[in-house]
Design brief:
Elements lengths: L6 E4 L5 E5 L2 H22 L8 H17 L1
Antiparallel strand pairs: 1-2
């Protein structure tokens, strides 16, 4: 399980209104959500002939690498 370091932001009445997390942990959460979404998309379109699983995975890796370079 991913451990998340949280800092709570409170208002003047000490009521929690937001949470701050380190950017590295945020990026890991973002990656997990993207991967989950990709898996869901692949599973939904398994019978669809637009992309085979391996083609979708290669395209995803291309997009991911492209984003890392920017």
């Amino acid at each position: 399980m991913l451990e998340i370091t949280k800092n709570y932001v409170t208002d003047e009445n000490q009521q929690p209104i937001a949470v701050q997390i380190p950017i590295a942990e945020f990026e890991k959460i973002e990656e997990i959500l993207e991967n989950y979404g990709l898996v869901q998309l692949i599973e939904e379109s398994e019978d669809d002939e637009r992309f085979a699983k391996d083609e979708a995975w290669k395209y995803y890796q291309y997009l991911k690498n492209k984003n890392v370079e920017n």
